[in-house]
């Protein structure tokens, strides 16, 4: 039995009720999904603008396949870099108002590539404790000294920044925290970076397409500008497709093309993905009603819930976490919702701190008013039960 210890570990997880199961989706992503044979109203996806199954994106992807075939067939630096990829990069840079951009196949790879290319063992990273796992992994892999500061604590960040003698310093933060839904204080982070000569990497996975009047993300939200900002966003969430990009100074981008290992040593994403993303960028820019709707749903949910023992975390984004407490209670609640046809994921430790197990309600422009009301009625009823 060469894998006996793995089997024992899996069994232990199972006994603790921590074994994770993959739900089988039998429909496209959307507000309503078919899961394991049942039709459900879903508050689970990161498809905030409802673009993942949009006809215009499907059409662009099909046209892209007709024109470019399916596989890119090589890495970007060999022969995988098509005109489709090439055209998307300046479009993304223009959209977020930065000089240049570079496409990656996934957000996870973008973070690994950016951080490991820019920092080494004589450097230091300052990271919010609640940052995404990919940023923590990237920091480890870079071998830079890693300082994790308590969530949102500018005082703690300033303390470690002021003491650091590292050659290069990088402050890293999620722009919108994925399990809490709150927005990082980007202008204050930037001010500290200016004061202590550090770069600022903002991971806008949940802000791109959502924040700002035009969906340009966290930089538009705060009207934030600085050459020391390294902006990163993913394209598989609000943008509805897949992939990610980094944007910033032209020299930064040129350097990453040469040194970001998760860019250099991987096959380019299918060109049809870039074609679908051009269509997505168009809709993000033109259809402001999607963001208006999201704001409406956030307010409607916050105003409609009347729960005594549970509370929504303070969040103005489509991520509306409802803190329940123990893992057992949140799983029970999630199962009760499921039995009424509503799918909301239960998020438990170690993903979130002990005692803060929660339902991670995520809202989408694909929801209609009745969907939000159905969730409100179900939660209000369960809170009394
Ligand atoms: C989803 C996510 C990523 C990873 O992006 P993928 O494209 O899914 O690999 C990175 N950072 C944050 C904050 C995320 O939420």
What radius of gyration results from the CA coordinates? 21 Å
Under CATH, the homologous superfamily of the largest domain reads Type I PLP-dependent aspartate aminotransferase-like (Major domain)
Assigned CATH architecture of the largest domain = 3-Layer(aba) Sandwich
Span from first to last CA? 48 Å
- Compressed to H and E, one letter per element, the order equals HEEHHHEHEHEHEHEHEEHHHHEEHEEEH
Largest sheet: 7 strands, mixed
Number of helices: 15
- Under CATH, the topology of the largest domain can be stated as Aspartate Aminotransferase, domain 2
Count of individual beta strands: 14
Bound molecules: pyridoxal-5'-phosphate
Helical residue percent band: 40-55%
**In what range is the share of β-strand residues?**
15-25%
Rough outline: globular
Please state the average pLDDT score.
96
Low-confidence stretches: none
Total domains: 2
What do you see in this structure?
The chain is of the alpha/beta class. The protein has two domains: 128 residues, Aspartate Aminotransferase, domain 1, CATH 3.90.1150; 232 residues, Aspartate Aminotransferase, domain 2, CATH 3.40.640. The protein is built from 15 helices and 14 strands. The strands form three sheets. The protein has a seven-stranded mixed sheet, sandwiched between helices. It has a four-stranded antiparallel sheet with strand order 10-11-14-13, covered by helices on one side. Helix 2 packs antiparallel against helix 12, helix 5 runs parallel beside helix 6 and helix 13 packs parallel to helix 15. The structure holds pyridoxal-5'-phosphate. Pyridoxal-5'-phosphate binds next to helix 5.
């Amino acid at each position: 039995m060469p894998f006996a210890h793995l089997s024992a570990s899996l069994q232990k997880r199972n006994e603790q009720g921590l074994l994770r199961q993959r739900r089988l989706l039998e429909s496209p992503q959307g507000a309503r999904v078919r899961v394991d044979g049942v039709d459900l109203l879903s508050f689970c996806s990161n498809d905030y603008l409802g673009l993942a199954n949009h006809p215009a994106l499907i059409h662009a992807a099909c046209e892209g396949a007709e024109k470019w075939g399916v596989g890119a067939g090589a890495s970007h630096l060999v022969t995988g870099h098509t005109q489709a990829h090439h055209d998307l990069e300046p479009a993304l840079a223009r959209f977020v108002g930065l000089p240049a951009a570079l496409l990656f196949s996934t957000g996870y790879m973008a973070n690994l590539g950016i951080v490991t290319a820019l920092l080494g063992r004589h450097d230091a990273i300052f990271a919010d404790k609640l940052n995404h796992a990919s940023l923590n992994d990237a920091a480890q892999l870079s071998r830079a000294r890693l300082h994790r500061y308590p969530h949102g604590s500018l005082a703690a960040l300033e303390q470690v920044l002021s003491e650091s003698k590292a050659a290069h310093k990088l402050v890293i933060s999620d722009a919108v925290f994925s399990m809490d839904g709150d927005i990082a204080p980007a202008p204050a982070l930037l001010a500290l970076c200016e004061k202590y000569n550090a770069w600022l990497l903002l991971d806008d996975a949940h802000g791109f397409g959502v924040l700002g009047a035009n969906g340009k993300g966290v930089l538009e939200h705060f009207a934030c500008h600085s050459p020391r900002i390294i902006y990163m966003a993913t394209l598989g969430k609000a943008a509805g497709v897949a992939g990610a990009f980094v944007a910033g100074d032209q020299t930064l981008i040129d350097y990453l093309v040469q040194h970001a290992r998760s860019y250099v040593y991987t096959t380019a994403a299918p060109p049809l993905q870039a074609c679908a993303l051009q269509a997505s960028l168009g809709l993000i820019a033109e259809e402001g009603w999607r963001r208006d709707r999201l704001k409406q749903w956030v307010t409607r949910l916050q105003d409609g819930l009347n729960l005594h023992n549970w509370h929504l975390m303070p969040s103005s984004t489509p991520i509306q976490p409802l803190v329940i407490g123990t893992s057992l209670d949140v799983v029970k609640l999630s199962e009760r919702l499921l039995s009424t046809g509503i799918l909301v994921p239960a998020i438990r430790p170690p993903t979130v701190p002990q005692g803060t197990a929660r339902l991670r309600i995520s809202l989408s422009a694909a929801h209609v008013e009745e969907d939000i009301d159905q969730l409100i009625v179900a939660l209000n009823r369960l809170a009394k039960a």
